[in-house]
Structure formats: structure tokens, C-alpha cells
Amino acid sequence: MAISRRKFLLTTAVAGSALAVGYVVLKPEEDTRLVFQKTARGGEVALNAWIKIDASGTVTVAAPRAEMGQGIYTALAMLVAEELDVDWKSVQVQDAPVHQVYANREMLRAALPFEDGYHQGENTSGAQFMGWLAELLSAQGTGGSTSIRDAWEPMRNAGACARHMLVQAAASKWNVPASECLAADGTVSHNGSGKSLSYGDLATLAASLTPPENPPLKNAADYKLIGKAVPRLDITDKTTGRATFGVDVKSDGMLYAAVNVAPVMGGSLKSYDREAIVKMPGVVAVAALPTGIAVVADSWWRAKKAADAAPVDFEDGGNGDLDSEGIYQLLEDSIKSGDPFTYRDDGDADKVFENAGDDVVASYQVPYLAHACMEPMNCTARVDGDNIQIWMPNQAPFLMRYLASRIADTDVENVQVFTTYLGGGFGRRAEGDLAEQAVRIAMAVPGKTVKLLWSREDDMRHDMYRPAARSLFRARLDDKGRPFAWFNRIAGQVPTKSFTQRIFDFATVDMPDNTSSEGSADMPYAIPNLQVQHVPVDLPVPVGFWRSVGHSYNAFFTESFMDELAHKAGQDPYKYRRDLLEGHPDYLAVLDKVASAAEWDLPMNSGRGRGIALHESFGSLVAQVAEVSVMPDDTIQLDRVVCVVDCGRVINPDTVVAQIEGAIVYGLTAALYGEVTLKDGAVEQGNFPDYEMIRLNNMPNIEVILAPSGRPIGGIGEVGTPPIAPALANAIFNATGKRVRELPLSKAGLVG
Amino acid sequence: MPAIKVNGEVRVLDIEEDTPLLWVLRDTLGLVGTKFGCGVSACGACTVHVNGEPVRSCSTTIGDVAGKEIATIESLATDKLHPVQQAWIDHEVPQCGYCQSGMIMATTALLAENPDPTDADIDAAITNICRCGTYSRIRTAIHAAAKNMREG
Question: How far apart are CA A727 and CA B139, in angstroms?
Fold first, then answer.
């Protein structure tokens, strides 16, 4: 309870300060139709905040979520088109402007930092508060695998409302009862007279009508699009080079910027020789940044060459001695003597462990990870007096708008944010650092559009990293080998705090944060005495949200340790888990399905092994079986991954499968190679040769099986990532008897 | 002043000879379908054809390609999509799509040389990085495109 109260105070403080800085102006009376109407081109008419129709009948759907590969533009358009009854071929998508109406309420609800019974869809006071906060902040963001969960009601509703208004418009034109009119495939027709009008003909009149309050929605059995494998709307542009990513934004007379910033964490600009820099070829301006300089030139290559050659000195912010060894030591010390928050406390684990017993004790560790989006970080900005325009591949346009307005000391209403396609996001593009830099730079060349682009090295060395983390387990088994008591203490930095501090530097207090213990405290296994704690650690390394956040390490820790217990008990790891899932038929179904699909009981040849892992994250259940072979040089080859997913209702099955395949590769890349290390206060890795990736030649065979139950809709973008590391590590144990407790595997010489 | 032939058109450039081809294509000529990924030939996002060979344009200077024929992703589809592009669409390969221009250019170069590549041939030739992990679909699409091209 104390936890809830403290966290409530923090969120209230954040909301209060947001109001205090004029961040949000609540306009309850505003006609939200006009929000989208303002973006109209070529005679488009908005019927509500999500739908515009032009005279030819082309339907443009507002997409307030970022398309970063997950197929969300297509899925959101499907929700609208399903209820609108429009020909799919006439549907297109446009990035939505920033507005309260597009706030992602589910993203904030899912980020509810304390336990108040809210998990998925429950109407708790915490969930209500977070939904309200989302609106207050206009929290238009893409994260936490929430896009569909948030859009499911409002966007189907938008389609149904528009359809209703189009039918009403036709009925009034023909002077017939609306009940005699039928809407289908973008046309309204009248039963008796055979008259028909296209949506394009009806849009203007329909837009003047009052939207219905609660239009009826279709029964699932009548769906024509939802649940079908609909081709992605962006697929042709993404195979012809025509898709516009942030790096591709063009404007006449555009200038280009490159940076040279302090390599040391927390470092700052000391001095630079402006005169020398402006003499370099093509250089137009130099902008001082808090952490270094930006060089503006007539081409990016010239800007980059000048930035690299620029005479510039930095302060190291007192972090010049920071290195990975020290950080890992601090994590270990924090486990021993840190001040933890307790996230779960069933029974009395302390009491069990007071009496000595034959405990299983193990420590696990994972390193910092970079996001390494394929599209290097960039933001294009233009400052004209009080007006700011930003073109950016980003996951949080509301945040970019706020930060831009703060840097330029102007009102948020004067900032326009255009969200391009994202060449990968993974959480990195929810960060505002590029927008802040780009606006500072654009202020140095007022009236000019300037494209700020980081090099790959800038990205690798100035990411907001997945935190390094350590986890200690102690377990006592009962006489049947089942865990009777389980203690888990995790230590690491907390991304939410780091993220919030980057926006509001006063947010320095450690608060409980479910994202640090997620995937551990919420385990489904029946263990009578269960305690899970997390010790927040302070370090100058910026940490952020990395695909699946806390689940990315806690799944590895808990599902590996569960395997250790099965081994200690002398039991099959699949059946061991099975026995601990009483009362969780949905988990059990997914686990059974993966075991059967992977032919778990089939014996394997010597030198081969199988591992299993089960994990719930973002409202979806995922189980994976990994199969490995030991190579003649004792390295490990991953042969096959079988994956079963229960995410409730599926909108577009093929993109769901694609997301799971991709999320497995993302987690696998991290498990095999991913490690960001520090030396002398700076990140040692700079580019892909030092931060290796899975490629075609070591891509395993992945089989994904969708097994939707009647669960509420779950997330998809992140949920495939968490189980792969433990499934792989457990397979390695099965094949070799070696227990992997540290990632990446390359460190242990297991990767060829 | 170096002159290059890009997608059939001769371009004379007033630019330093050490400028990478990638930046000439993107910023000077506005052909932004070719992508910047790493700048060190490690990821393949910037792959174009130089005299028909796949080349990583981030690490090839404009001086290196003077007088040569360069083809970018923009030249691939004529009146209809290239079979490789069509296979990419049929198999729903792209996710974020950022690496796919480079993947497709590397693949068209491979198939021009080897119309029926084995998995091992593909592994050896296509070393590009896809952070979304679309590799399985890329492999399937390469085989499908090769088959379609062989069968005309």
C-alpha cells in the first residue's frame, strides 16, 4: 500500500508539473473532427479524427502510432475499414497530428508502476488515473506493445460512426428511412429504388451530421478483414525504395548537420574553435550543444568531415574512470547490501530460509545492450520565429513537441511534428535527444530546414541502453522436488527513472517501478513462499526502453533458474513447469502446444539438446523450444526454434507471425553477441563489427504457431523476445551439462 | 570533376573525389532509396550495382567509380516490378523496410550471376544485416524469385 501511495504522488507531481509548464490545454468542447480536417488536401473531408474521404472515395486513416516495422499502419487501417465497410484497395494511411484525441491510454495503463489489480482491461482506480493522465499529457506514443490494445475500441468505433453518418447522409438525400439503406464496399445503396452513391459523393454531407454516441459494432463472425492475412499497405513502397524514412526527408535548400559530442557518459562541451570550423569546406554554421558541437554544412558528408576534424574539448563530468568491471561489481554489491523494493511477497520466504537447508543458489548477469536500429538516429527541424516544424522517425510525437517547445521557448501549439516511417524503433525512438539537438541546431540557422543525422558510432556510443542487470536466486524444494520457497533479488538501473529524469531533471527519487521486476514478480508458477525484490542502482549510464524492457532479462533469469530446479529435482523441465501451473489453463495450453509441436518427448542424438521456456509479457503468452547442436569445436549451433503464441484476438496473422520471428532474432542476437562495455567512461563498441548481428548464415529455422484463446487482446511487438535466451540456455544445458548464467554466449566461447 | 552514369544517365559532379558514392546518390542526386546504415561496409544497406557488381556505396568513393555505370534500387522496376521485388511482396518480407533496398540489390546481383543459388550460396553472397530479422522470408523470396526468373 505504501508503494501505491508514493507512486501516486510521483505521477501526480509529474502531471502537475506538466500542467504548470503549460504542456497541456484541455479543450473538452473541441470538435475533434477538425483536428484531422486541418490536414486535408485535395478536397478531403474528415468525418471524425480518424477518417478522411475524398471525392474519389479514397479513405485516409489517421495513424497516431509509429510504423516501425510492426505493421501497425495496416492493422489500424483494418480496424477502421472493417467497420466502415470500404473497399480495402481505397484505403491509405497518414501519420496523425499530435493531439489529445490520439493519446495512447493503454500505454500509460500498462505502465502503471504499482500493483492494484490492473493487468489487462480491469477497471481499477489506477487504470482510470493513468488513462486520464494519458489524455492530460496527450500521450501520443508507441510503446509497451499497446497500439492494438488501445485502438481496438476507438478505431473500430470511428469506422462505425463514419459508416452511420454516410448512411444517414444518403437517406436524407433520397428522403428515405436510413433502415432501407445499405453500406458496403464504399457505396451506400437504397433497397427499394436501386439508387446508390459512393462514400466520396456523401462525405461532405455526412461530415455535417452529428456522430452517433454508440454505433453498433460488427459481430466477429462477420469480419471481412480482421483476422485475415491482409497484405501490408507499406509493402510496395518498402520494396521499391520509395518509403520515406526520417533520413529521406527532402526540402529545397536543406542543410545537413553532424555532431561531435563528449565520448564520456555525462560529459560536456568545454571549448571549441569556431573560426577554424567555419573555414572548412561547405560549413555554414556551428551550434554549441550541452554535450558538444554540431556542424551545419551544405551536405552531410561535409558536415561529418568537419565535425570529425573540429578542434573541440570536452569535460568528462567526473565519469572518466567508469568501466564495466566497476559496474558489474556495483551490481553485485547492490544485491548484497542495496536497499530493495519488494514487488511480490507470498507466504514467508524469509522464515523458510532462516533454517538451513539444501538450497539451490545461483546468480545471473546480463550486460548493457544497444538498440542499434538500422536507420541511424536523425531528426529534421526548421525554426521560423515562434514556429517549429519537426520531421522525425519517432515513437512519441507528444514528447518531441513538448521538448522542442521547451528548447525554443515557445508554445506547444506552435510546434508541428511529422512522423515518418521508422527504420526500426525498439524503444530508442521514444527518446527526445535527437529532437532537442535538432531544434538547437535549427535555431542557429533560422528559416532553414536542417537535417541532423548521427553516424552509426554516434548511435552506438550515445544510446539509452538496456540496463545491465544481476539476479540472485535462492530456492528450497519440498520432498516432491517442487519449489517450496523462492527468493529472487535483481539489481540494476531503472529505465523509467532514467527516462523521466531526461525530461524533468528534478525526478531524482527512486520509486518502485514494475518494469524492473516484470517477468519475475509476475511469474505464474505455484510457489507458496515467494519473494521478488529489485534494488535500483544509480549510474551515469543513460538507460531506456529496449524491446521488452525488464522482461528481456527477467525471462532469462527466471526461466533458466526454473530449469536448474527441474534438474535438481531430477525431473523433465517441461513436466516440472507443467506441475506448477495449476489454475493457469491458458499458460498450460501454450506450454503443452509447444511441447507437442516440438516433439519434446522424441529422444535426441548425443551432442544435441532441447530447451524450453514459457513467458507472459504485455498481455500475451509465449512458449518456445530451442534445439541446439554442439559443433566439433565445442561451439553451439541453434538449429530450430518452435514458438507458440497466445495473444488473444489476432488482427493480421501474417504480420503477427513476422513480429514473432523478428523478436526472436532480436533476442537471439542479444543472447549470442550483445554486449555494450565501458572503458574510461565511454562505450567501447562503435559499429557492427564490434556489435555483431545474426545474419542469413546463422539464422535458425523458426516455426511460429498462433494459438489464440479467448484471452483479451495482448501485445505482439515485444513478446517474442523474452523467452529465446532462456530456451537457448536451457537447450545448451541439455546438450552439454553447462549452465549458462551470463550473457552473451560469445563471452563463454560458445559462439562459432 | 568526376562523371558517373547513374541509372542510365550521365551525371557530372562538382564534388570532392573522396566523397562516398552513397552521399552523392542520396544528397546530391536525391536518390534516397539507397540507405545509410553503418558507413563501414558492415551492414549492406547501401548496396548498389557498379558495372553490375554489388558494391557497398558507403565505402566506395566517387573517384573510384568515375566513368562506371551505377544502378540503384530506383532503376529496378521498369514498366513492372523486378521479379525479386515481386517475390519480396509475395512473401511479405519487409518489416521496417530500411535494409530492404540493399537486400534486394544484393539479391538481384546474385541472381544475375547465379540463377539457381543454394542456401550456402545465399549465405555467402547476402551478408547484409536486417535488424527486424526478416531473414527466413528473404531466403524464401530469393528462391522464389530465382525460380520465377529461370522459368521466365
Answer: 24
